From TrEMBL:
It comes from Aeromicrobium choanae. Mg(2+) 2 binds at E430. SUPFAM superfamilies: Class II aaRS and biotin synthetases, Nucleic acid-binding proteins. Keywords: Aminoacyl-tRNA synthetase, ATP-binding, Cytoplasm, Ligase, Magnesium, Metal-binding, Nucleotide-binding, Protein biosynthesis. CDD domains: LysRS_N. InterPro entries: Aa-tRNA-synt_II (IPR004364), aa-tRNA-synth_II (IPR006195), aa-tRNA-synth_II/BPL/LPL (IPR045864), Lys-tRNA-ligase_II (IPR002313), Lys-tRNA-ligase_II_N (IPR044136), Lys-tRNA-synth_II_C (IPR018149), NA-bd_OB-fold (IPR012340), NA-bd_OB_tRNA (IPR004365). GO terms for cellular component: cytosol. This is Lysine--tRNA ligase. Mg(2+) 1 binds at D423, E430. Its EC number is 6.1.1.6.
């Protein structure tokens, strides 16, 4: 039997297909109330409910301290909200209503104002969680609380399942599986939604200020490119062709550069058929931007503007790191090469010229497992990811990667064997990669063909040879800088939450 606060048993395991006799008691009682309303000719889900003011408008327009107790404003309003508190005391009932933005106000129903029959119906039919419409005068109660003294009321939507008790937290499973309830009971969940919306607005404003044009590119694609990741496979019935869900936005945005859209970006979902943890979700939101005649240096300036502007937009330019230290996003950001950071972490002299066997020996000394066939570049990258990345709390541009691990980046302007690429790490998490983009179609073909050989050898994350992309490059793509920014991870940083909180409805295992 479902009791108040027993959310997991009441709302997760029970299904609407249960026979009436098997329903939990609270659900059966609420369904009976719904039926009583229908039998009386009252719609428990009316098409229209009058609303003249939002609760926020009323709260912001009236100061109860200035009004004092038992004050009458003379203002009649019609409001709506969800019932989050209910107290029936004889001839006077109190109900607290909350709107979606979190604004709350008390409504009072008295025998004198609504009449005996209406008050009795209120007591008999209204439950916690119901959506209610109330019309009445804005007043203050005897205790000085801003209230609406109801002259009329109606149920706007009858809730058939009992609401969780707010002071008893939902389990992590329930919070993510039933985010709608998490939003009802937790202000933090509602704030995460507002912060993400503000971040997206800020990102677009910053890019607009820098002259970028927003475009949309296909989600369904023929080839796997733009990142090292395992794709989702699907089938397009209209063409009777296999298709992939995109793992990145990159290759179509570069086609736009070829066509003359010199500053271009997209914010959209990408899909990677990989693991789920605190920083990874199979579908996630990415921002990718490309600038003709830019480089990874101009992209560093752009990403700093994007992050700092977003932080300012939500009032969080200083956030707390995973180690408890403060991260001041407006302070100068560090820049270091991947070889410098690995050498610093291992105490070994490692650079782009260090032989593969010597780098492997360093890995063995530090207990880092390696795969057969990896060259020195892959080993250095693995050392970085296992020993260094999680330690970089303050914003750090990790730059100048081995050519083998960044096949879409351009050769370094001064150091053979390296490419011009960086990853921005903040709070131990990769937030954004950027490249001086490779635009030589001959070299690009060589690198993609090498990726195809790796795929043929069993690497599920290797890229395909995208012939249309290569054809586009052969028409001439200008020198360019490009960046990818994880929008969800930026929200994680600013809010101090995991990815399953940053994404409103994360991927869930089937119930």
């Amino acid at each position: 039997m479902c009791r108040w606060g027993r959310l997991d048993s009441c709302l997760v395991t029970e299904t609407p297909e249960l026979p009436e006799d098997d329903l939990p008691e609270q659900m059966r009682v609420r369904r009976e109330k719904r039926q009583r309303m229908l039998d009386a000719g009252v719609d428990p889900y009316p098409l229209l409910v009058e609303r003249t003011h939002t609760i926020r408008e009323i709260v912001e327009a009236h100061d109860p301290e200035q009004l004092g107790p038992d004050a009458h404003t003379g203002l009649t309003v019609s409001i709506t909200g969800r019932v989050i508190f209910l107290r029936n005391t004889g001839k006077l009932c109190f109900v607290r209503l909350r709107e979606g933005d979190g604004s709350e106000i008390q409504a009072m129903l008295s025998l004198a104002e609504v009449g005996e029959e209406s008050l009795a119906d209120f007591k008999a039919l209204v439950d916690l969680g119901d959506h209610l419409g109330v019309t009445g005068e804005v007043i203050t109660s005897r205790r000085g609380e801003l209230s609406v003294m109801a002259s009329q009321w109606r149920i706007a939507a009858k809730t058939l399942r009992p609401m969780p008790v707010e002071h008893k937290p939902l389990s992590d499973e329930a919070r993510t599986r039933m985010r709608y309830l998490d939003l009802v009971v937790r202000e933090e969940a509602r704030q995460n939604v507002r912060v993400k919306a503000a971040v997206l607005k800020s990102l677009r404003a910053t890019l607009d200020r820098h002259g970028y044009i927003e475009v949309e590119t296909p989600v369904l694609q023929h080839t796997n490119g733009g990142a090292a990741a395992r794709p989702f496979h699907t089938h397009l019935n209209a063409f009777d062709e296999p298709q992939l869900l995109r793992i990145a936005l990159e290759l179509h945005l570069k086609r736009s550069l070829v066509g003359g859209i010199d500053k271009v970006y997209e914010i959209g979902k990408t899909f990677r058929n990989e693991g789920v943890d605190n920083t990874h979700n199979p579908e996630f939101m990415m921002l990718e931007a490309y600038e003709a005649y830019g480089s990874y240096d101009t992209m560093a300036e752009l990403v700093q503007a994007l992050v700092v502007d977003a932080a300012r937009a939500v009032g969080k330019t200083v956030v707390t790191g995973r180690d408890g230290t403060s991260i001041d996003l407006e302070a100068p950001w560090r820049r270091a090469t991947i070889h410098e950071l690995v050498a610093e972490a291992t105490g070994a002299a490692i650079d782009v010229h260090t032989p593969e066997e010597q780098v492997r020996e360093v890995a063995r000394d530090h207990g880092v497992s390696l795969q057969d066939g990896w060259g020195a570049g892959e080993v250095v990258l693995e050392l970085f990811e296992k020993l260094v990345e999680h330690t970089l709390i303050q914003p750090t541009f990790v730059c100048d990667y081995p050519e083998a691990v960044r096949p879409l980046a351009k050769k370094h302007r001064t150091t053979p064997g390296l490419v011009e690429a960086w990853d921005l790490i903040i709070n131990g998490v990769e937030l954004a990669p950027a490249y001086s983009e490779l635009n030589d179609p001959v070299i690009q073909r060589e690198r993609l063909e090498e990726q195809a050989r790796l795929a043929a050898a069993g690497d599920p994350e290797a890229m395909d040879v995208d012939e249309d992309f290569l054809r586009a490059l052969e028409f001439g793509m200008p020198p360019a800088g490009g960046i990818g920014l994880g929008v969800d991870r930026l929200v994680m940083l600013l809010q101090g939450i995991g990815i399953r909180e940053a994404i409103l409805f994360p991927v869930q295992r089937r119930e």
